[in-house]
Design brief:
The chain is an alpha/beta fold. The chain folds into two domains: about 5-180 and about 220-245, 3-Layer(aba) Sandwich (Rossmann fold), CATH 3.40.50; about 185-220 and about 250-290 and about 305-325, Alpha-Beta Complex (UDP-galactose 4-epimerase, domain 1). It has helices at about 10-25, 40-45, 60-70, 85-90, 90-110, 150-170, 190-205, 225-235, 255-265, 295-300, 305-325; strands at about 5, 25-30, 50-55, 75, 120-125, 175-180, 180, 210, 220, 220-225, 240-245, 250, 275. The mean pLDDT is about 100. The structure holds NADP nicotinamide-adenine-dinucleotide phosphate and ligand F7E. The site of NADP nicotinamide-adenine-dinucleotide phosphate has 28 residues, from helix 1 and strand 5.
Length: about 325
């Protein structure tokens, strides 16, 4: 039975990945941070077979301990401060966790498997935010990186450090450059979930508007359940590598509003949407769209859920959660 250690186990991707690996027969371990983490119960409910280890990406000794106690074949580094807007307000902390945290874990893995470099396979959750002010469209593995936020800059550091450990020490280290991926488990702060929750509340008469920022931003949005499969596939290759994971389609926040409100029978959403500069960013990533040809050709990966299906899935889940009083 292969063993995996996942950081960021309480997050959207950590939960989907844990489900995938458990279904494949893995012994799954997760790193969980903080005293009495409020999401510990969620992990216990959704993936009760995951064994949790206390630790934090900024605390090297806790990483060494978690590796010693789980002795994994595969390590998935999904832990991060992942909210781009928040990263300007906490740039140093974001750098410590989302950037330097990657180095801490790479070094802990290297020391843990010093007898046999490559014994422990490593996945780094890199991001399309690294492309920022895009220098080429669509974006692929070789596109010049031009990050536009402290989060993006931190991810670039983690990305290059992962490549450096692969090249310096012969580690089986892969970097998945994942474009936005969403689900009913997405954090409420991200625009898709913010919209689908609001649409559910508006359609049930519990609210009358949602306040957003830039409606013209365009993203390549896919389904998180599809994207964790690509993570696993990367670690099954004979060698580590870098892979863009994306749908190849781009949609604006306005398109998202059309689909989400349209699904509950509201064709004109303008009376329900307000705009506030508070939700605009100091520097915006205007448009992202990925070219996932390498993932398709080498990994045999392609997305299954379309953008309209994703939005419908999220609105339906939020309608149910709102009716049941879960949210
Ligand atoms: P998420 O829901 O925000 O989850 C982030 C996870 O990181 C949470 O489990 C959080 O744990 C953990 N974490 C935060 N600070 C930590 C620390 N100091 N030490 C250890 N763990 C810490 O993010 P996600 O959407 O699942 O994304 C997973 C990864 O992929 C992240 O690295 C993200 O940056 C990256 N990514 C995401 C997307 C996307 O569209 N979703 C796209 C590209 C890349 P707590 O419960 O303790 O807060
Ligand atoms: O914003 C615009 C906002 O916060 C998307 C993270 O998972 O994906 C995610 O980062 C767009 C931006 O995601 C609101 O300005 C308008 O242009 O949902 P988001 P993100 O910043 O793209 C990448 C790939 C990651 O790696 C990150 O970890 O929507 N927008 N109005 C808004 N965004 C938010 N959050 N809230 C608004 O009210």
């Amino acid at each position: 039975m292969p063993t995996a250690l996942i950081t960021g186990i309480t997050g959207q991707d950590g939960l989907y990945l844990a489900e995938l690996l458990l279904a494949k027969g893995y012994d799954v371990h997760g790193l969980i941070r903080g005293q009495n983490n409020p999401r510990r119960d969620l992990v216990a409910d959704l993936v009760p077979d995951v064994r949790l280890h206390n630790g934090d990406l900024t605390d090297m000794s806790s990483l060494i301990r978690a590796l010693r106690d789980s002795d994994p074949d595969e390590v998935y580094n999904l832990g991060a401060i992942s909210y781009v807007a928040y990263s300007w307000e906490n740039a140093a902390l974001t750098t410590d966790v989302t950037g330097k945290g990657v180095l801490n874990l790479l070094e802990a893995v290297r020391l843990h498997a010093a007898d046999e470099p490559g014994r422990v396979r490593f996945y780094q959750a890199s991001s399309s935010e690294m492309f920022g002010k895009v220098q080429e469209t669509p974006q692929r593995e070789t596109t010049l990186l031009w990050p536009r936020s402290p989060y993006g800059v931190s991810k670039v550091f983690g990305h290059h450090m992962t490549i450096n450990y692969r090249e310096s020490y012969g580690m089986h280290a892969s970097s998945g450059i994942l474009f936005n991926h969403e689900s009913p488990r997405r954090g409420h702060e991200f625009v898709t979930r913010k919209v689908t929750r609001a649409v559910a509340r508006i359609s049930l008469g519990l609210a009358d508007h949602v306040t957003l920022g830039n409606l013209d931003a365009r993203r390549d949005w896919g389904f998180a359940g599809d994207y964790v499969e690509a993570m696993w596939l990367m670690l099954q290759q004979p060698e580590g590598g870098d892979f863009v994971v994306a749908t190849g389609e781009t949609h604006s926040v306005r398109d998202l509003l059309d689909l989400a409100f349209g699904h509950v029978g509201i064709d004109d959403w303008t009376p329900h949407v307000r705009q506030d500069p508070r939700y605009r960013r100091p520097a915006e990533v205007d448009e992202l769209v990925g070219d996932a040809s390498k993932a398709r050709e080498v990994l045999g990966w392609k997305p299954k859920v379309t953008f309209p299906e994703l939005v419908t899935m999220m609105v339906d889940a939020d309608l149910e959660a709102t009716r049941q009083g879960w949210t």
